[in-house]
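Allow me, if you will, to draw on your knowledge of protein folds for a short while. I have a record of one protein: its chain in single-letter code and its fold written as C-alpha cells. The full record is reproduced below for your convenience:
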Amino acid sequence: WKQPVFIRVAGALFAAQMACIMPVLLVRLGTGMPLEVFSGDQIVRAVVNLWLSILISIYLTKLETEKDSGATSPLDLFFAFFGSYERAKILEENVKEWENRYKKILLNVTEFIVILDTNGKICDLNSAAARTLGKSEKELLGFELFSSKIMKKFCAHRGLSKLMPENTLPAFAAALALGADEIEFDIRLTKDQKLIVSHDGTLERISDGEGKLKEKTLEELLALNIGVKHGWEVGFCTAEEVFEQFANKIVFNMHLKEHGEDGYLIRELVKLVDKYNAHGSVYFAGSPSELEWMEKVAPEIPRTAIQLPKDTVEIYEMATKYHCTGVQFWLGMFDEALIEKMHAAGINCNLYYADTHEDYDKYFAMGIDTLLTNRMDLANKYRK
C-alpha cells in the first residue's frame, strides 16, 4: 500500500478487469474454445484502464496533497453534504412539529394575532384578528397591513387635550383607552429640581396660579388646579406618576423643555426609565440644545428632533447631527420630498398636528408615520 498512487490504482483496475474476464477464460478452457487473450476487446479495455489509472492517480494525488496542507477536499465536501442533509431532515421534522403547535396556539387564543412578512403583508392570522379587522381570514392573507389605516400611528398630544385638561393623568388615561399608540407630554424642572409635566413655563394659561413655573416648588405647584378652563378639579402630575401609571402600556414621546444643569433633567429621566424597565417604549424629543445633552448623557434613549418656527437649523441637519431616529415636523415646515429624504436616511417622521379625518388622510398619504393629535376620539373613529 505504500507503493506510488499510479501503481495502486492500475493494480486495482487490473484486478477488477481480471475478475470480469476470469469466468470467460475458464469457460473457454473447459469447452476447448480458443482463448483469444489479445482480442480487440481486451486491447481496448487495457487502453481504457491505463487512461483511467492516470486520471484517478492525478486526482488522488491532489487529494492527498490537499489533505496534508489542511485544505478542504471534494470528499470532505461530499461527506459534509450528506451529514448536513441528515441534520437538515431532523431540523425539518422539528420545524413541522413546532408549526403544528403554533397553529394550535394561533387558532385557540382570543388575542389579536397577525403575522407579517418583511413587506408588511399578512402571511397568517387568527380568527380574533380577522374579526377585529372586519374581513375573512382568506381575504386578509396577503393584505398590506402597513399601508392600511390600522397601522398608521397616532400620538395623543398632551393626552386627550382638546376635551380634557392637558398633560394630566386623566387625559393620558383617556388617550390610552381610545387606542393611542403614544402619548406626548412635556417635562420641566421646578424650583426644587423636581420633574413636573407641563407645556408652559408660566402658570396663567394652564392653571389658577400666576408667575413662572420654575420659581415654584413642587409642593406649591401641586396645590394648584390646572383643570379650571374645563370645569375640572385636577392637579399637575410628576414625571414619575406618568411612569408609575402608564410605563410599558403605551409609548412615551417626552418633549424635554430644558435639560437642566449638566443634563440633570435628562439624567433623572433615565433613572425613571431604568426603574420602570421602560427601555424600548420611550423616546426623547427636543430642540438642538436639548438634543446635544440627550446624546451626551443618555445615548441609549432614542431621540427625535423638533424644529420650531424660531429655529434656524434645518431639521434634517439637526437629526443627522445628533443621530436621531425620528423628527417631529411643525405644520407648514415640511413637504413630501423632505419626508422621502428622512425615510431614505432611516428616520421616522412625526407631525404636529392633525385633528380631522381629512387631515389624517392628507398627511398619512404624504408619508407621515405618526400624527400628533389633540382629538384621539376622532382618531379612534377614523381607524374604524
